[in-house]
Amino acid sequence: MTQVLHIVGGGMAGSEAAWQAAEMGVDVVLHEMRPKVETFAHQTGDLGEMVCSNSFRSDDDEQNAVGLLHWEMRAANGLIMTTADTHRLPAGGALAVDREPFAETVTARLKAHPRVTVSYEEVTALPEDGNWIFATGPLTSPDLGQAIQAETGAEALAFFDAIAPIIYAESIDMSKAWMQSRYDKGETEEERTAYLNCPMDKDQYEAFIDALLAADKTEFHEGETAGYFDGCLPIEVMAERGRETLRHGPMKPVGLTNPHQPDVKAHAVVQLRRDNALGTLFNIVGFQTKMKYGAQTQVLRMIPGLENASFARLGGIHRNTFLNSPTLLDDQMRLKSRPNVRFAGQITGVEGYVESAAMGLLAGRMAAAEILGINLPQVPQDSAMGALIHHITGGAEAKTFQPMNVNFGLFRPVDGLKGGRRGRKDRYKAYTDRAKSAWSDWLEHSALDAA
């Protein structure tokens, strides 16, 4: 076997795809344009750099679809999940990581793999031949984006992804804030105190909303539209949808007791999550924003406990492009008009670090199998991986296709189980049990086919 697999983009999807293909015995060239060609959001040239949150979200593999996806990726020897576990930070029931050593480890492991070569050059066209995976994510370079649009004959869809601010821990007033995970969730004291909470009374909340609505915002360029992904809305957009929206979203006060005033129920609570292993940085949970920098510092310092906040990084906003995958890709993630090219990750219309890495995992295995002449079994639709790839390659309505996180709404129903909220716990457990069995069988049969 002399064919080489070329992978463009060294983010979550590209890194995972390269690892999976190399582990199957295929030589891989991973093309990453950074640091020669920089982006607005990236700070380094490391592979697997996390540019937004440092959280992989829930790690509950029995009651949460993204936790189930974690489980499936671990079972498949996933590089991203293995590295995340190595650099895990306390975050209640979530999986949060120390982002800098995480990316450094991903980079080191790929560079040390005997079948992986990393090339730091920009790829600006879709090749006519060879085996390729494009995993260029939300910040696909303009030249490559134009090449993709020219090939597909359709405008790539776009929305704006916003980044939450990061604050130095030493600048937070702990006489007003306190450490507690909502409902004291977590198995250890460290997990149960993983979040930093800043309470607001009604007057403070109303003043905050007024300032948020009045703040200067980033303007859009001509021809751009603000089609936000609902799972990552800027806080000011949420506030525009109703003054109470934030109280029922990232600022909900439930499950928390203020030890400074245990008899006073907060009207709203802003939560921050540790952003590094040293505990010197905290990001504001759910506070993606497109406010201009000056306005951000003024508005965010209205939050009790953050009056003297010092910012390691202010929030920002960037364009995110993705394909209309149900129309353009086949069930092997190949571009229908050019089958030597696959796409993976966020550009396919999945949303989130975990989902992007998962689609990279599948694309890497599918491309390697094709090169090796292996007939992989179809990814089982009852697994989290299968539910997600089925959605983006045909299960979604093409006319209304939007970026999607993994969720149990993508899963086929389990016969005989009650619907509604009361039956949800049993239903979710049935989904995850069925998925684990289906995914384990798929991995076993894939290994037999490879052998």
Automatic annotation (TrEMBL):
The keyword Amino-acid biosynthesis does not apply. The keyword Isomerase does not apply. GO terms for cellular component: cytosol. Its EC number is 2.1.1.74. It is an enzyme of class 2 (transferase). FAD binds at residues 9-14. Its cofactor is FAD. Belongs to the MnmG family. TrmFO subfamily. Catalyzes the folate-dependent formation of 5-methyl-uridine at position 54 (M-5-U54) in all tRNAs. This is Methylenetetrahydrofolate--tRNA-(uracil-5-)-methyltransferase TrmFO. The gene is trmFO.
